[in-house]
């Protein structure tokens, strides 16, 4: 089926000391896949760059779970904190999967305690590559086809994570999300 390349750009606004833990970034990846950190930086509210992450500030280690001694999963970590609030952390990474079953499963939340003002997803596929899309709670959806490919755009604003209820499905099931899979794929 080929490879899948995913480019992620994240912009976080840290408004006070209690939000500094969100400036501790971890990006998981698997053996055989390629993860490249394109850039990571601290900005002020006007978008002026305050500091750029240096290559030596990135740590890589095995991402071992509680149930195993060895896994082919790894994690790249770095920290971008500033002492003047508010500040922004902007970073981008490129992930190339050697094998994949889904194109994207996007839930535009960091966690249930952080409000998400705006989130945008753009997926580009080749022409003639049919997909199936499930979306829930996403405000705007657009599909544009050109000779070079098909671009699917999803936007969500003022997102609220669903409240947890007793004796109910997990709240994440009802969260705003997009799930895109190939209409046909070959299982290896």
Shape: globular
The main sheet comes to: 4 strands, antiparallel
- Low-pLDDT segments, ≥5 res: none
Overall SS class:
mainly beta
* Total number of domains: 2
Order of helices and strands: EEEEEEEEEEEEE
Strand order of the largest sheet: 1-7-3-4
Mean pLDDT: 86
The total count of strands amounts to 13
- The CATH first-level class of the largest domain comes to Mainly Beta
Query: CATH architecture of the largest domain, please?
Result: Sandwich
Q: Estimate what percentage of residues fall within beta strands.
A: over 45%
Number of helices: 0
Binned, the helix content reads under 10%
- Cα separation of the termini: 10 Å
Radius of gyration over C-alpha positions, nearest whole angstrom: 18 Å
Question: Any idea of the CATH topology of the largest domain?
Answer: Immunoglobulin-like
Question: If you had to describe this structure to a student in words, what would you say it looks like?
Answer:
There is one protein chain. The protein is mainly β. It has no helices and 13 strands. The protein starts with a strand and ends in a 6-residue tail after the last strand. The strands form four sheets. The chain has a four-stranded antiparallel beta sheet, with no helix packed on it. It has a three-stranded antiparallel beta sheet with strand order 2-6-5, with no helix packed on it. A three-stranded antiparallel beta sheet has the order 8-13-10, with no helix packed on it. The model has no long low-confidence stretch (mean pLDDT 86). The relative contact order is 0.21. It has two domains: 1-100, Immunoglobulin-like, CATH 2.60.40; 103-188, no CATH class.
């Amino acid at each position: 089926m080929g490879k899948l390349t995913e480019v992620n750009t994240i912009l976080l606004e840290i408004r006070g000391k209690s939000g500094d833990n969100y400036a501790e970034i971890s990006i998981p990846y698997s053996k055989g896949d390629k993860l490249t950190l394109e850039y990571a930086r601290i900005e002020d509210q006007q978008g002026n760059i305050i500091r750029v992450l240096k290559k030596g500030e990135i740590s890589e280690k095995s991402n071992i779970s509680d149930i195993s001694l060895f896994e082919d999963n790894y994690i790249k970590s770095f920290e971008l904190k500033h002492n003047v609030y508010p500040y922004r952390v902007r970073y981008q990474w490129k992930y190339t999967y050697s094998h994949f079953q889904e194109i994207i499963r996007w839930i535009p939340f960091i966690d249930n305690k952080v409000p998400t003002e705006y989130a945008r997803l753009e997926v580009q596929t080749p022409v003639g590559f049919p997909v199936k899309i499930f979306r829930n709670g996403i405000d705007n959806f657009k599909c544009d086809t050109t000779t070079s490919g098909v671009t699917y755009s999803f936007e969500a604003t003022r997102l609220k994570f669903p409240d947890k209820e007793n004796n109910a499905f997990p709240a994440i099931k009802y969260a705003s999300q997009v799930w895109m899979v190939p209409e046909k794929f070959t299982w290896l």
